[in-house]
Amino acid sequence: MPYDRPDSLSVRLSSPNKLASLGRNHSERNQTEEIPLPPALHRFLLAPTTRSPSSPQLKTVLRLADEDLENVTVHGNSFVFRCNQSGISKSFSKYTFDQIFASDATIQQICSVCLPDLLQTCFSGSDACFIYFGAVSK
Questions:
Q1: CA-based angle 129:16:52, to the nearest 5?
Q2: CA angle at residue 73 from 71 to 74, to 5 degrees?
C-alpha cells in the first residue's frame, strides 16, 4: 500500500488492521485519529524521498559511559575495546558506529542527531524505530 503524504500538518492513523491488532473494539476501528505535528517537522513532510522503501538502513550510535573510557580508544566513529583484567589475556575488539557520543551527552543531544533521519524515513513511508537501552545508574 503506497504512502500518501498528508496535505495538512497532521498524521492520520486510520488503518483498521493496525487498530484491531492493538486490541481496540469494533466501534473504535472506524474512527480516524489525528496527531498534530509541530511546525518544525513540516520540512520532513516536504522533503523528497532519498532512498527506496526496499532498502532499509540500520544506523547505530553509541554513548560511552565514564567507566568505558578506561578500556576504550576512540578513533572517529570507531573504537577499540581492550580487556586488561588479570587472568585474561589482552584481547582487542574493534566496533564501528555511525556516531559515538561522549559520556556527558544528554538524551536530547542524541535525539537531535538521530531523529531527523528517523523521521525522514518514517515520513517517506518506510518503517522506523528508535531503541535506547543500557544500564541505569543507581
A1: 40
A2: 135
Taking CA atoms, 86 is separated from 90, 91, 93, in Å, by 9, 12, 18
Question: How far is residue 84's CA from residue 87's CA, in Å, rounded to a whole number?
Answer: 9
Report pTM: 0.47
Copy the grid coordinates of residue 117: 533521519
Burial class (CB in 10 A: 0-12, 13-18, 19+), 75: exposed
Phi-psi region of 77 (alpha: psi -120 to 50; beta: other; left: phi over 0): alpha
**Measured in Å, how far apart are the chain's first and last C-alpha atoms?**
46
- Residue-wise pLDDT for 94-131, tens only, equals 778 888 888 888 888 888 888 888 888 888 888 888 77
- For residue 83, the cross-strand partners are 91
